[in-house]
Amino acid sequence: MNSRKLQNIVPFLMSMLGIYVLSLGIVSVVFGRKLFENLSFLQLHGGGTASIFIGIFMIILGNGLRARTRASWYIAIFLILTSLLSILVRVRGFSLIYFDAIGISANILILSLLLKYRKEYIFPSRTIYLPVEGKLALAAISASVVYGVAGTLLLGNQFEPPIHDFYTAVYYTFVILTTLGLGDILPITDTSRLFTVSVTVLGIASFLGAITTFVGPVLQQRMNKVVNVMESMEFTGFRDHSIVCGYTPLCSEFLKTMKSMNIPIVVVVRDLELATALKNDGYIVYREHADNIDVLRKVGLKKAKNIYICSPDDGYNLLVALTIQKFKKQEHLKCKVTAIVNSSKNAEKLEDFCDEIIDVSRVLNDHIMKNKKQEI
């Protein structure tokens, strides 16, 4: 097996190791206490519970390693080292020694591969933006869990059966927070009943808030994709139409004129609010990045007569122009490309990729100078 194939198999091996470590952790937690009553807290939770979380993170980490991000490499090294440590503190005498030996070997194998190909993991990680509502939702859930576990341990004798260990308190808290109500543990005093009701109310409120915060944007994205697909189906019948990539208020009158002349126009913009406003004005809008060749295909670039690049960002305009020029050469298209330049210093950069350049600052300067001459 060559080095490239060996490197590409690392994410798969990491995910498989995660499943293996997760399974060992579950077995240790479920059967460890039953078989050995004199187990220490460190042996049970450090060897079993820790392995469960390590295994879950290893499974999730597979995608990051596949993208060869720098952060995923560091996290993978950390997880492997903690996995080896959890194996060392696992339940002594418990009959998992042979399985642990396999786990140690697999950890060392993947660790050696990661160290060998460490120079390949050079790409930056994508920044995950979490809105304020999301942070508040996570904080509410965390506070509810802490409140539930701490209160359950404090009121341990007021339950039937009594709750005196951390594990059972966590179990009871999640049963109440998720409103499952299995009935195996019951509050037997007024105080414990009121506490259970308060945890239930907190659970319902925090989880509903989290669902609204996290699921809402996902559903919105799905709906936008469906709308884009439906709109792209409309473009299939277009011919000799105009495509406007980006939008600036400078071209608003131009769009109105084109619309009044019944010339079919498709506007491609990135911003949701801007797309909504243009749709309300009666324009056909496709909300995507215009520097994506697949997007340009969907809006009918092959059959378009004119393309206007009108974004207020000259850098973005240049990317769009490069993409269109490359596609024109591949498909031997004859459509005319016109770009609006917001800064004169960027005009030369766009001239090689566009048929016509409209320099806003130069047009404004010529207009002012013309008026000055008339006054003189």
Give your account of this protein's structure:
The protein has helices spanning 3-8, 10-35, 41-66, 70-88, 97-116, 132-154, 166-177, 190-235, 252-260, 272-280, 293-298, 314-331, 347-351, 360-375; strands at 159-160, 186-187, 242-245, 265-269, 284-287, 306-309, 336-341, 356-359. With 376 residues, the protein is of the alpha/beta class. Strand 4 (265-269), helix 10 and strand 5 (284-287) form a beta-alpha-beta unit. Helix 3 (41-66) packs antiparallel against helix 4 (70-88) and helix 4 (70-88) packs antiparallel against helix 5 (97-116). The longest helix is centred in the middle third of the chain and has 46 residues, at 190-235. The radius of gyration is 31 Å and the shape is elongated. It starts with a helix and ends with a helix. The mean pLDDT is 80.
Q: Quickly name the level 1 CATH class of the largest domain.
A: Alpha Beta
Chain-averaged pLDDT = 80
Specify the biggest β-sheet: 6 strands, parallel
Q: Radius of gyration from the CA trace?
A: 31 Å
Report the principal-axis shape: elongated
Q: What order do the helices and strands follow? A: HHHHHHEHEHEHEHEHEHEHEH
Q: What is the percent of helical residues?
A: 55-70%
Quick structural summary:
The protein is of the alpha/beta class. The chain contains 14 helices and eight strands.
Layout of helices and strands:
Blueprint: H1 3-8, H2 10-35, H3 41-66, H4 70-88, H5 97-116, H6 132-154, E1 159-160, H7 166-177, E2 186-187, H8 190-235, E3 242-245, H9 252-260, E4 265-269, H10 272-280, E5 284-287, H11 293-298, E6 306-309, H12 314-331, E7 336-341, H13 347-351, E8 356-359, H14 360-375
Parallel strand pairs: 3-4, 3-6, 4-5, 6-7, 7-8
Antiparallel strand pairs: 1-2
